[in-house]
């Protein structure tokens, strides 16, 4: 364990170690920028950027950032959206761009402070607005940190880099297995379906999406119905069936838009920016907005457990993108999905396929949990050292 002498640390405002960059570029493509980052592109409690948008596909964003900058979601800071940029691009106005003042702090230490519990709680406490609370730079600039001398800064950075290396190794295993899982799905939902020996000599039935699915619109008042959890679009993660975050009814209630009941076993699908591949399989009851579709399969023809995998296939995603409307915030109507066609075997074979896909996804989930455990260790050390 590293040895630190906190008696030598100095109390400084956050503005002593970071600048908040507010530069905008109205012609990003002409200036060599190709990618943009929105809040949806930053995963909660992760310093990595796992997906991006292409500027050429349309965006209203103009705020610029550089590789090495720290991106912090100022809207609903309780979501803990912090990331280190590994490229230069443009981002949402709801993202604050922090740049290290290198004469005072090592660049690699700045994101650790921003990720610390003290900083997050301070950001939450300085947020204003009931429906979509936001914090401001002028408030965050006043947050006080304990700043060690450079020699101890380096020790802290090295410690967390070693933990991060282990996290990345587990992440690579997860990534490779997930890639294999996606390959199996894409081969199954192809013009010529394949799935090892399970489809050999099987008769396949061609179906349209509208014939085997139903959108459920159970409108309720969550307060009187006894529902405790609200799931917004931002609570659904890309290519992840599990709903990992939510908000509580009555605690910062998001309003009457969130009145669609979903139940455990339902599929939730984000109808906006479908390229984000937000397909979730609910394991609790809750409410969502009508922009999140609640879906049930006709299980006499198509198993619900298989439908969720089909909806993450490349063919389904590209179809949904193709029928989406709007350039800056593309969306689909439920009827837009009617004519998506695919082939399925009998339900007995479907069960076998679902078991294979679910088993692989379960191992992916175990690796994800390992990462969570390591991240929790990292956060605990972070809070002990920097708070």
Predict the CATH topology of the largest domain.
Adenine-n6-DNA-methyltransferase TaqI, Chain A, domain 2
What's the tally of helices? 9
Provide mean pLDDT, rounded.
93
**Which CATH C-level class of the largest domain is it?**
Alpha Beta
Choose one word for the global shape.
globular
Share of residues in strands: 15-25%
Helix content: 25-40%
Write the layout of secondary structure elements.
Blueprint: E1 10-13, E2 18-20, E3 35-37, E4 53-54, E5 63-65, E6 70-73, E7 82-84, E8 89-91, E9 95-100, H1 110-115, H2 117-125, H3 137-140, E10 144-147, H4 150-188, E11 205-208, H5 209-212, E12 213-215, E13 218-219, H6 222-225, E14 229-230, E15 247-248, E16 258-262, E17 267-270, E18 279-281, E19 286-289, E20 292-297, H7 304-310, H8 314-322, E21 341-344, H9 347-386
Parallel strand pairs: 3-8
Antiparallel strand pairs: 1-10, 2-9, 3-4, 5-8, 6-7, 6-9, 11-21, 12-20, 13-16, 14-15, 16-19, 17-18, 17-20
Helix pairs in contact: 4-9
Question: What does the model show?
Answer:
With 387 residues, the protein is of the alpha+beta class. The protein folds into three domains: 10-147, Alpha-Beta Complex (Adenine-n6-DNA-methyltransferase TaqI, Chain A, domain 2); 148-196 and 346-387, Bipartite methylase S protein (Helix Hairpins), CATH 1.10.287.1120; 205-344, DNA methylase specificity domains (Adenine-n6-DNA-methyltransferase TaqI, Chain A, domain 2). The protein contains nine helices and 21 strands. It has a four-stranded antiparallel beta sheet with strand order 2-9-6-7. A hairpin with an 8-residue loop joins strand 17 and strand 18. It is globular, with a radius of gyration of 23 Å. The model has no long low-confidence stretch (mean pLDDT 93).
